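Hi C.,

You asked whether I'd gotten around to modeling the 142-residue construct. I have! Everything is below, sequence then structure, no commentary in between.
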Amino acid sequence: MKVLDNVLKQPSKKVLFLCVENSCRSQIAEAFAKSLLSDLCDSYSSGSKPSGVVNPKAIESMQRAGYDLNTHSSKEVSSLPTKSFDLAITMGCGDYCPDIEASEYLDWEIPDPKHLGEADFDKIRDQIKFKVENLKSRLSVI
């Protein structure tokens, strides 16, 4: 019975959040998804031209929301443990994001907050959280 419980608890969906640098928006989305949707999916983030670091403003904004991004890293798609996803979500980078194998694609059209002040950055963070929370119903049908 314990083996069956472990199989039933394993997430079956794979969700990828993409942006160009993988330093702000996609990092925030991945963190929220890991926290809020871990029972529904495995979450990943990457970028087409990773900056190599998570933006300090993203780290600070997520700390204000109770999340720690200090262990996250900016990475490219080729470094991910899987190459196929159930859902790939671009943050608003459109054609700048790499081709990804996914069953379904979304573009959230979220502006890049890297040059914004604290209050406006937090608004973008909260917008991303809202969108992640709303993925619950979509994940149940893909």
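If it helps when you're writing up: The beta strands are 13-19, 41-47, 84-90, 101-107.

Thanks,
B.
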